[in-house]
Amino acid sequence: MKYRELGRTGWKVSEISFGAWAIGGAWGNVNDQESLAALHAALDGGVNFFDTADVYGDGRSERLMAKLRKERKEKFYVATKAGRRLNPHTADGYNRQNLTAFIERSLKNLDTNAIDLLQLHCPPTEVYYRPEVFGALDDLVKAGKLRHYGVSVEKVEEALKAIEFPGVQTVQIIFNIFRQRPAELFFAEAQRRKVGILARVPLASGLLSGKITRNSQFAKDDHRNFNRHGEAFDRGETFSGVDFETGLRAVEQLKKLVPAKATLAQLALRWILEFPAVTCAIPGAKRPAQVAENITASDLGPLSRATMKKIGAIYDAEIKPLVHSYW
Ligand SMILES: NC(=O)c1ccc[n+]([C@@H]2O[C@H](COP(=O)([O-])OP(=O)(O)OC[C@H]3O[C@@H](n4cnc5c(N)ncnc54)[C@H](OP(=O)(O)O)[C@@H]3O)[C@@H](O)[C@H]2O)c1
Fold first, then answer.
1. CA quadruple 322, 25, 81, 208: dihedral positive or negative?
2. Alpha helices (H) in 216-285, listed in sequence order
3. How far apart are CA 58 and CA 193, in angstroms?
4. Alpha carbon of 264 to those of 109, 153, 163, 210, 298: distances in Å?
5. Exposure of 310 by Cβ count < 10 A (0-12 exposed, 13-18 middle, 19+ buried)?
6. pTM of structure
7. Which residue(s) pair with 280 in the sheet?
8. Which of 65, 135, 246, 296 is 20 to 30 A removed from 167 (C-alpha atoms)?
9. Other beta carbons less than 10 A from residue 163's beta carbon
10. Whole-number pLDDT of residue 97
11. Of ligand 1's atoms, which has the minimum distance to the CA of residue 122?
């Protein structure tokens, strides 16, 4: 496993880290024993950074992180998120009082005195125009409740606005073979300001593992079933916002580019690591075998220029016209 510096935090985090949404909920049935085994496998493989949120399984994912902390001695970082407990989810809800309450709850779930990294959880765009929200986060850092804070965003424009606030250490954004726009302008700006980038949904919800077919069935409580068209939350979070059939067609072309002894999931993760502005990819995983496969991407050699070009051409032809301008 290789490590990269996370913004200005002074932390070195594993370039393949761990996304803990699926082990909380909204991805069909999961069992905590298997989830914990996946978390242990991640630590065994050198992962030292985990991304969760207060709403993943209504705290289940955070509580698993606390359990992992008890069972292991090595140092690792846990990033969580706040804001999505708001109902309705409005910009006004992102106020000092609510944020403080959400953070107190996460501290309990995580069984800790201070949160390593707190991210605003894809708030409405208007929140990025309210300096008082970031002022409240600065105060929570001063009070010792947060070590650092950052944002998770839907759109490149939100990311660009967020990094104008000097306390923002990280931006979490969808970045993968099917979502390439962040690399155009945002990455250079983030690098200039030394802001860490967490690449989320790196496997386009599993589509870029190559295992999903036209006949794949997803459980009722799996967002790949209930949010395919954005019925419950931003449609970009499910299959990266790519139309299912189009995605499957592009995957067939990508399979031809997989290096010898590698898998499509590893190619997809390696592609993300080719961008030095990215601090880490945070693939979700439910089982130790998925973790083992994903972390191996860090040890793959760089992709050839020819492969990068071919991936770019597949994106340009199949995916770009459908998604590029949305996020
Ligand atoms: N708004 C936000 O801030 C937000 C939104 C989305 C995600 N995130 C964060 O980003 C993380 C990653 O995104 P994601 O989990 O949505 O999507 P992802 O990482 O693109 O896909 C994860 C899913 O793909 C499948 N998978 C993983 N590794 C695999 C492998 N090697 N082979 C085959 N299948 C594999 C697993 O599901 P199955 O086994 O069920 O197929 C897994 O749950 C999340 O866990 C979360 O921490 C944040």
1. negative
2. 223-226, 244-255, 264-273
3. 34
4. 35, 26, 33, 6, 14
5. middle
6. 0.97
7. 198
8. 65
9. 24
10. 98
11. 1
Instruction: In whole angstroms, give the CA distance from residue 289 to residue 229.
Output: 30
Q: Which of 18, 51, 158, 205 to mutate to test ligand 1, by most ligand atoms within 8 A of the CB atom?
A: 205
Cα–Cα distance, 165 to 47 (Å, whole number): 29
Using the predicted structure, report yes or no on whether residue 40 has a pLDDT greater than 90.
yes
22 C-beta neighbours (distance < 10 Å), count:
25
302: Cβ–Cβ under 8 A, 6 or more apart, which residues? 270, 274
C-alpha–C-alpha distance, residues 270 and 304, integer Å: 11
pLDDT tens across 196-239, in order?
999 999 999 999 999 999 999 999 999 999 999 999 999 999 99
Q: Reduced to 3 DSSP states, what percent helix, strand and coil does the chain have, rounded to the nearest 5?
A: 45, 15, 40
Is 90 exceeded by the pLDDT of residue 190? yes
Best probe residue, ligand 1, of 47, 49, 155, 201 (max atoms within 8 Å of C-beta): 201
